[in-house]
Automatic annotation (TrEMBL), chain A:
The lineage of its organism: Eukaryota, Fungi, Dikarya, Ascomycota, Pezizomycotina. PANTHER family: CGI-121 FAMILY MEMBER, EKC_KEOPS COMPLEX SUBUNIT TPRKB. Keywords: Nucleus, tRNA processing. It is found in: Nucleus. The keyword Cytoplasm does not apply. Its main location: nucleus. The keyword Nucleus applies. Belongs to the CGI121/TPRKB family. It comes from Ascobolus immersus RN42. One of its GO terms (biological process) is tRNA threonylcarbamoyladenosine modification. Component of the EKC/KEOPS complex that is required for the formation of a threonylcarbamoyl group on adenosine at position 37 (t(6)A37) in tRNAs that read codons beginning with adenine. The complex is probably involved in the transfer of the threonylcarbamoyl moiety of threonylcarbamoyl-AMP (TC-AMP) to the N6 group of A37. CGI121 acts as an allosteric effector that regulates the t(6)A activity of the complex. The EKC/KEOPS complex also promotes both telomere uncapping and telomere elongation. The complex is required for efficient recruitment of transcriptional coactivators. One of its GO terms (cellular component) is cytosol. InterPro entries: CGI121/TPRKB, CGI121/TPRKB_sf. This is EKC/KEOPS complex subunit CGI121.
From TrEMBL, chain B:
Its EC number is 2.7.11.1. Component of the EKC/KEOPS complex composed of at least BUD32, CGI121, GON7, KAE1 and PCC1; the whole complex dimerizes. Residues 7-240 form the Protein kinase domain. Pfam families: Pkinase. GO terms for molecular function: ATP binding; protein serine/threonine kinase activity. It is an enzyme of class 2 (transferase). This is EKC/KEOPS complex subunit BUD32. It catalyses: L-threonyl-[protein] + ATP = O-phospho-L-threonyl-[protein] + ADP + H(+); L-seryl-[protein] + ATP = O-phospho-L-seryl-[protein] + ADP + H(+). Component of the EKC/KEOPS complex that is required for the formation of a threonylcarbamoyl group on adenosine at position 37 (t(6)A37) in tRNAs that read codons beginning with adenine. The complex is probably involved in the transfer of the threonylcarbamoyl moiety of threonylcarbamoyl-AMP (TC-AMP) to the N6 group of A37. BUD32 has ATPase activity in the context of the EKC/KEOPS complex and likely plays a supporting role to the catalytic subunit KAE1. The EKC/KEOPS complex also promotes both telomere uncapping and telomere elongation. GO terms for cellular component: cytosol; EKC/KEOPS complex; nucleus. InterPro entries: Bud32, Kinase-like_dom_sf, Prot_kinase_dom, Tyr_kinase_AS.
Length: 197, 240
């Protein structure tokens, strides 16, 4: 688990709270975590994102920044800052659809777990041990390579309704990386368009 | 991924009548971004002010995204938009404006703009690039509204690929229009900018127009209209 603090936007009065963040692969108890989330169990107040829908760290942080910005400016559109992260990822304003597309489902195999430090009680040690005890899966280090491994192209293209996209097939490594950047741009554009459409 | 330490404060880098431009880190301390912030205007009725600000932020960000979708034209990428807060967070373009480039060329030649044979192919190429880019932009019905040499940036060549790439900035007065008149005025405004900031650089503008003319059929019609606009100035209706 890592802890990050995003730089605030100019003109913000409040800094963003810190965020604990972890990536799990081979998750075996997604159904249980999902049920706890649905039941509103306070101990499981985390942001769960299906990692197959994430293209890069920039993509992930973009969603996180939106959610934190909504949190500090009291303009959350969903129940709390954690659900807002899932909603931020969505290219449209349908909240329940955002959850089924980008959030945890019983079938999730890879997961990003967020905990926004909205209370001094949420220390790194406490959250880390609770996650280790609750999530049955392998924690892996978060970087672009790991995310590329968990990303599911087909689902991402579908989720963001990206049509004019060629599958990067057997190209040289450099070209493939370039395509990844282009996909990331398209995805983030889709997220921005939600706010300006 | 890095764990952030002290956040650097945003730096005010430019101020216009409408907006303030801040340079600040975005997402990671290493990534620079520009925030265009339209502060509330105290002399305006608050309700009207909020509506105008929101409208302009939305218009500008939509245009930026639209322009970035056009092949051959680049504008700063939009990262985040807060319509109610009057903020657009966008890509930081590391480079200098075409204005600075031209002034540099003038200086190198002792204040005189080289003509004809003397004009370096590099500068000629830059002008043609500007022409082609504007042609592509106009072909896709985007009108900038305030084209000047300061509003066209040249990305730093020494950095990685995409070096020497032209980027159009500031779509605050932009619009989507199919009218030749609007496009011709766009070119006219740029021509005035060329003449006023570099009186000796007038000949360069012909290079821009030459490349522009070759981009599409519509472009030649726009150039015909430009002759009319030159005769009467920017305002068509002569009112106000």
């Amino acid at each position: 688990m890592i802890t990050i603090t995003l730089p605030p936007l100019p003109g913000s009065d409040r800094p963003y709270p810190a965020v604990h963040l972890a990536l799990y692969t081979n998750v075996r108890n997604a159904a249980f975590l999902h049920s706890q989330l649905i039941a509103g169990n306070k101990d499981f107040d985390y942001g769960f994102i299906d990692a197959s829908m994430i293209t890069s760290t920039t993509h992930l942080l973009t969603a996180l920044q939106r959610s934190l910005q909504a949190y500090v400016s009291n303009t959350l559109k969903t129940r709390n800052v954690h659900s807002e992260i899932v909603f931020s990822l969505s290219p449209n304003n349908n909240i329940s659809k955002a959850f089924t597309t980008f959030g945890i489902t019983a079938a999730s195999k890879t997961l990003f777990v967020f905990k926004v430090v909205t209370s001094p009680d949420f220390t790194a040690a406490k959250i880390d041990s609770h996650l280790k005890a609750s999530v049955e899966g392998d924690e892996v280090e978060i970087n672009d390579d790991a995310i590329r491994g968990t990303a599911d192209m087909k689902k991402i293209l579908g989720g963001y309704r990206i049509q004019d996209w060629r599958k990067p097939d057997n190209q040289k490594a450099e070209v493939a990386r370039d395509d990844q950047g282009a996909l990331e741009r398209k995805v983030i554009d889709a997220m921005v368009l939600k706010y300006v459409a | 991924m890095t764990t952030t330490t002290e956040p650097q404060p945003p730096i005010l880098i430019s101020q216009g009548a409408e907006a303030l431009l801040y340079l600040s880190p975005y997402l990671t301390p290493q990534t620079a971004s520009i925030t265009k912030y339209r502060p509330p205007k105290p002399y305006r009725h608050p309700t009207l002010d909020a509506r105008l600000t929101k409208h302009r932020v939305l218009l500008e960000s939509r245009l930026l995204i639209r322009v970035n979708g056009i092949k051959g034209v680049r504008a700063p990428r939009v990262y985040y938009v807060d319509p109610a807060g009057g903020k657009i967070v966008m890509e930081y373009i590391d480079g200098c404006s075409v204005r600075d480039v031209l002034i540099g060329v003038l200086k190198a030649h002792g204040g005189a703009m080289p003509e004809g044979e003397q004009l370096s192919t590099e500068v000629k190429g830059l002008m043609a690039k500007i022409g082609r880019m504007l042609g592509a932009m106009h072909k896709n019905e985007v009108v900038h509204g305030d084209l000047t040499t300061s509003n066209i940036m040249l990305r730093d060549t020494s950095k990685d690929k995409g070096g020497g790439e032209l980027v159009v900035i500031d779509f605050g007065l932009g619009s989507v229009s199919t009218q030749e008149e609007d496009k011709a005025v766009d070119l006219y405004v740029l021509e005035r900018a060329f003449i006023s900031t570099h009186p000796k650089a007038e000949g360069l503008f012909d290079e821009v127009l030459k490349a522009y003319a070759e981009t599409s059929k519509g472009a030649r019609i726009v150039l015909k209209r430009l002759d009319e606009v030159r005769l009467r100035g920017r305002k068509k209706s002569m009112v106000g």
